[in-house]
Write a structure and sequence with these properties.
The complex is a heterotrimer of chains A (416), B (175) and C (191). Chain A is an alpha+beta fold and 416 residues long. Chain A contains 18 helices and 8 strands. Chain A has a domain of 268 residues: Cytochrome-c3 Hydrogenase, chain B. In chain A, strand 2 and strand 3 form a beta hairpin. Chain B has a domain of 119 residues: Rossmann fold, CATH 3.40.50.12280. A 4-stranded parallel β-sheet of chain B has the order 1-2-3-4. In chain B, 44% of the residues are buried. A 5-stranded mixed β-sheet of chain C has the order 1-2-5-4-3, with helices on one face. In chain C, strands 6-7 form a two-stranded parallel ribbon. The longest helix of chain C is centred in the first third of the chain and has 12 residues. The radius of gyration of chain C is 19 Å and the shape is globular. The N and C termini of chain C lie far apart (54 Å). In chain C, 44% of the residues are buried. The chains are: A alpha+beta (416), B alpha/beta (175), C alpha/beta (191). Chains in contact: A-B, A-C, B-C. Bound molecules: iron/sulfur cluster. Iron/sulfur cluster (SF4) binds next to helix 2 and helix 4 of chain B.
Amino acid sequence: MAELKNIEISDSAVRSAEALDELQDLQGEKMTLNMGPSHPATHGVLRLSLELDGEIISKADPEIGYLHRGDEKIAENMTYNQFIPYTDRLDYLAPLANNVAYALAVEKLLGVDDKLPERCKFIRVICCELARVSAHLLGLGAFAMDVGALTVFLHTFNEREKIYNLIEALTGARFTTTYTRIGGLSRDLPEGWTEELSKFTKEVSEAIEEADKLLTRNKIFIDRTKGVGVITREEAIDFGLTGPNLRGSNIEYDLRKAHPYLVYDQLDFDIPYGEVGDCYDRYLIRMEEMRQSVRILDQCIAKLPNGPVNLDDGKIVMPHKQKVLSSMEELIHQFMLVTQGQNAPAGEVYFGAENPKGELGFYIFSKGGGVPHRMKIRAPSFVNLSILSHKLPGHMMSDIVAILGSLDFVMGECDR
Amino acid sequence: MNTTEIGYNSKIEGNVVHTRIDNAVSWFRKNSIWPMPMGLACCGIELMAAGASRYDISRFGSEVMRFSPRQSDVMIVAGTVTYKMAIAVRRIYEQMPEPKWVIAMGACASSGGMYRSYATLQGVDRILPVDVYVSGCPPRPEALLEALMKLQDKISKELHIKDKKPARDRGLVLS
Amino acid sequence: MTAKQLAKKIQSQFKEITSDPVEFRDELTIDIADAKQISVVCHFAKEHLDFDYLVDLCSIDNDDETPRWTVVYHIYSYKHFKHLRLKVHVSEEDSKLPTVTNVWRTANWHEREVFDMMGIDFIGHPDLRRILMWEGYPYHPLRKDFPLAGKSSDMPDVAFTDPVPLEGGPFVTSPGNKDSADREPRVRNPE
Ligand code: SF4
């Protein structure tokens, strides 16, 4: 029979008590923690260097640039149309909206933004709103997953797959769409697409309500988000936040209302805005924005006019291939467009569009010709993230994921 | 009293498989390749889609996305690897325990893709040994699943026992 | 108040250093001659004209023209919803100007990016480090004399870079007013 050994519990307890005594003077010592650049809650490649005092963050230093691919430099070496595929990859959760914003900026430079055909404008609005729904679905799903509710993610991804189907029918790709062209679109809507879309708007409304049931009154979710990461009105403006993050802080501002572009002034929709500016408010706003987007989509389907989708200007829009082969003038236009691009005037424009993440702006400085001299992309995620080093200190470790999730950023756009 | 039956035993028929150890190990391995998802850019979204409801990567035993390199077998590099990120990718790869494989997902990870610029590493194979390349920008989730199956094929042909030569060739013939 | 009136106000406040506002596509641009005054002008715009939101801050490399740098400020107001663009010119020898982080805190990262990409210093910036490229990277990639393909740099333990092959790569269009054979999109390998 084995002998029972005396386990010296008392001893180790005494030892740890002694250790604790020694630790007294160590308390208050800071610990440095590195989070990312490969971390599930950083939605890509954000890195945070944190200084912790126990569980409390005392200093946070976000480090970005892990996805800096040189988009702005590339833009300086390309004609305007050539750059469109790169805009897909800025905010890769809402590529259609980026395409539209970029095309509008260049059209503003060319001075043709108000000459676009109505049908083109409506289709572009559909693109933007579809992109918004898809981006918010993923944003919410990922946010919920970060704070511990995996189910929502699977539900929202289901809906996103439906959006992908629609987009694939429209553009031929799931999310690298490259759909717009300067002065129009790469193609018209395929046959029967609007019916599919209206079917989808019904389904997605149900899915939104479902996600709403799963989260909005979920005790755990509320505990994790309410009162966490409060951004005041003044801070939000001072740090240049835009999009849902700005509206969360009790500012009723939306570029679609304040400076309507495309046909947003003909459409009826509301701007949700929060009161406190905490993570929960930002969540609610995204929820409501999806509902409003669905509303816009429905109106667009009803109002969609017939007609051409491209500008009637051979110097800006690529002529039809049939004509290129049969007429000299069109052949020359095509040749000029391919080799030199649109001949833009010298000048500078800034155009900002209300994208799912915030104000996506393009500042184009042209010296004339088909290539921009400088193109600056004002990326909403970049600006939204700059508040982190100010906002994180004072929060608990576990709040980081909630705050990051509620800010809803995309690194592709942040780092460009 | 216990007796040991030798030879054919009808009680265990169908419950025993004779195979070589290599094959058995390969079979275990290939059906539980746990990925380390390096979702760096846009391709990461398709990687998520592959893991989500419709494409359901768990049909191939790879649903256990581990963000800890120590628990993963295959690194799926999904996205543009920049020079700044390259060091981190490399370090994470080194932290993965053997045996390990790498899937380069998408044009960027395979070759730099459309980002021929000063900041982008021109293909992750410059820093890691890649087993399967997936083309596309981004590849569809199906393409990723096919890559996974290709990798399974590859694993099932691998020999795992350290000394791969038959004993006779090593001069250890037992006469 | 229209944007024009607001621009006039800035102009009358800083008579000696501001130009007439230029209008292009409904946007107003004011040139500010003295870069050293930019923080004062911005402070005035924020405090007295309610421009509480700095939309964007970026820089332009004017290549072979002098002065070489232009720094561009896009400002906006949530009170009267007007947009204005301020521009200052900085010479290459100088390459520095005062920060506006004390006016809008969002300028912090924007200025770091300008510093990183073009190498312009901001005096008084609380934390001027590289932001997109890594610490120790020797070049400023958005300068016009830096090739798209990059230059090799070697930083043991941090990162290395090599020029990328452009053979068969994206067809690069050269900017500028050279003749079309030089401008048209084609493969251009780094020398
Ligand atoms: S291959 Fe295409 S989709 Fe994938 S990361 Fe690169 S640019 Fe994005």
